[in-house]
Write a structure and sequence with these properties.
This protein has one domain: Histidine kinase CheA-like, P2 response regulator-binding domain (Alpha-Beta Plaits). It is 34% helix and 34% strand. The protein is built from 3 helices and 4 strands, in the order E-H-E-H-E-H-E. A 4-stranded antiparallel beta sheet has the order 2-3-1-4, covered by helices on one side.
């Protein structure tokens, strides 16, 4: 049971589209943009590996925020897919 029912915890798997941009830079910018709506809990690969350029074609992010699933999906579609090399994403609400 959650301590605060208004806070949702999500896990997102983001697939990066192969482009001329470094995947680690794109992953870092995605995480930075996500901090506008959420508190980042963890990433895979870890943030240190991302900062050192060790990202392949996907990144997994666990975060908490007050938005519902539809709002999170809209944020990903409008912000991340449009602005960054995101091929696809999967958002899971952690129960």
């Amino acid at each position: 049971m959650r301590a605060d029912p208004e806070i949702n915890v999500y896990q997102s798997l983001v697939h990066l589209r192969p482009t001329f941009q470094d995947p680690s830079l794109v992953a870092y910018l995605i995480i930075k943009r996500l901090t506008r709506i959420a508190e980042i809990i963890d990433t895979a690969p870890g943030l240190e590996r991302i900062e050192n350029g060790l990202v392949g074609g996907k990144v997994k992010i666990m975060y908490s925020c007050r938005l519902g699933p539809e709002e999170v999906n809209r944020f990903f579609s409008e912000q991340l897919v449009r602005l960054f090399s995101v091929e696809s994403f999967e958002n899971y609400l952690m129960e």
